[in-house]
Specification:
about 180 residues; alpha+beta; Aminopeptidase; seven-stranded mixed beta sheet; two-stranded antiparallel ribbon; Acyl_CoA_acyltransferase; GNAT_dom; transferase
């Protein structure tokens, strides 16, 4: 496996040709009356071509605005990636945004997500963050991953993320 920082020149749709973004979700966390509960909510989360193009554009923007995108390759094929934005935010300007972290379906459970998360956290800390902010998919499995990485509910919610993804769990990881 080879993990490297990606450049804007490498960022295109073809980069994701061997990346499988598919998650079969059965149960999700939902905040009801101020309490987190697990609810049955079965669906399949799979990216469309349009969503891949939006992703490519977002990752290009991350690189252009001095954030970072790391890609993990197995046999030269992208199997995981993570990105961190460069702009500190929050009342005390202590958060950096983990804007994406994804592992191809065929590589989940391999430890790749943990490696990518640690790399993102190290980059954020070296760029002045005290906390990494994550607007995270509410699937039980996804939340278990973040909890295992030391994430907890964010003290301060980012309104932009809440508006864009109202069902996401807003998390932070102290660096």
């Amino acid at each position: 496996m080879n993990i490297k920082e990606l450049t804007i020149e490498e960022m295109n749709r073809e980069l994701f040709n061997h990346f499988v973004r598919r998650q079969e979700v059965t149960r999700c966390y939902r905040k009801i009356d101020g309490e987190w509960v697990i609810k049955d909510d079965p669906f399949i989360d799979e990216w469309s071509e349009e969503e891949y193009q939006i992703l490519v554009d977002c990752l290009k923007n991350t690189i252009t605005t001095r954030g970072v995108v790391y890609g993990a390759f197995v046999d030269g094929k992208l199997k995981g990636f993570t990105s961190v934005e460069s702009q500190l935010f929050g009342i005390n300007k202590e958060y950096l945004d983990l804007s994406s972290i994804h592992v191809s379906q065929d590589m989940r459970g391999s430890g790749l997500g943990r490696k990518l998360f640690r790399l993102a956290a190290d980059w954020a800390k070296s760029h002045g963050a005290k906390k990494l902010y994550i607007s995270a998919h509410s699937a039980v499995e996804t939340q278990e991953f973040y909890k295992s990485m030391g994430c907890v509910e964010a003290v301060e919610y980012n309104p932009k993320h809440v508006e864009q993804e109202p069902c996401d769990c807003q998390l932070e990881c102290i660096l």
